[in-house]
Amino acid sequence: MKNKIEPQVTLVGAGPGDPDLLTIKGAKALAEANVVLYDALANEELLSYAPKKALRIFVGKRKGCHEYTQDEINQLIVDNALTYGNVVRLKGGDPFIFGRGSEEIEFVESFGIPTFVVPGISSSIAVPASQGISLTKRGVSESFWVITGTTSARKLSSDVSLAAQSTATVVILMGMSKLDQIVALFQKESKGEMPVAIIQNGTTPQEKVGIGTVDTIQKIVAEKNLSSPAIIVIGEVVGDGKKNVAFYNELKSHHNKVLVYGKE
C-alpha cells in the first residue's frame, strides 16, 4: 500500500548570508525536507543540508526581476506540500522581519496544513555586528529602529521621518533606492554630521562597506558603487564601531575627504 502523503511546511530563516550563521535547528529542518523553496537572499550553500533527492525550487525576487509573484509562491508551497509532504521554505535573514513569512504561514494554514517556524538571525542585527557596530551602547544609544526603506506601495516608510527625530540608532533595510530621500530627512533634522554605514552583501565574501556621514554618504556610495542588497545604519554607534572608529575620526578631521573601505 502506498504511503499516505503527510503535508507540512517549515519556514526556516537562512540568516544574513554567511552559511555558518544558519541555526542548528534550521539545518535539521533542511535535512528532513522533501522540497526546498528558497529565496535570492538565502545562500545556496545551505541547500547542501537537504537530502540529495529533495527538490530545490528557486523562488527569489530581486528589484525589477521576480521569478514568481508572492501569490504564486504561496500556491507553490501548498502544491508541493500536498504532493511531496515535507516542504521547507528557506528565507533570507529572519522570515518574520520584512520577509512576508506571516503571509505565507497564514495561506498554508488556510489549507489545514501544519506549519512550523525556525527563526533566523536577522541581517538587521547581524550585519552591523559583523562590522563591530553595536546598535545599542551604554551612554550612546538606548534603542534602535529597524525600518523598511521601501513599503509595499514602493514609497519610503513614514517611520524614517519619525526615526530621524529620535536619538536612536536607525537601521534601514531595502532603502538604497530611497537614499536621497533618507539623507534629506536627516539633514532636515540638522543631523548632517551623523555617522552612517552602508554594508552591501554583509557577512559574505562579496561584502563592501562605506563609512561616512549623512552629508557625505551619497558621494561615498557613488564612488564605491554600493548597491542593493545593503543595510543602512545611521547613528553615533557607527563612529564607535571597533572597525570604524579610526576611519570616522579621520573623516571628522578632514570633512571633505571621502573615506571608503570594503572587500572587493
From TrEMBL:
Pathways per UniProt: Porphyrin-containing compound metabolism; siroheme biosynthesis; precorrin-2 from uroporphyrinogen III: step 1/1
InterPro entries named among the record's database cross-references: 4pyrrol_Mease, 4pyrrol_Methylase_sf, 4pyrrole_Mease_sub1, 4pyrrole_Mease_sub2, CobA/CysG_C, Siro_Cobalamin_biosynth, Uropor_MeTrfase_CS
Keywords: Methyltransferase, Porphyrin biosynthesis, S-adenosyl-L-methionine, Transferase
Domain Tetrapyrrole methylase: 9-217
Any one GO MF annotation of this record: uroporphyrin-III C-methyltransferase activity
GO terms under biological process: methylation; siroheme biosynthetic process
Coiled coil regions in record: none
E.C. number: 2.1.1.107
Top EC group: transferase
PROSITE patterns: SUMT_1
Assigned protein family: Belongs to the precorrin methyltransferase family.
This protein's name: uroporphyrinogen-III C-methyltransferase
Organism: Flavobacterium xanthum
Phylogenetic placement of the source organism: Bacteria, Pseudomonadati, Bacteroidota, Flavobacteriia, Flavobacteriales
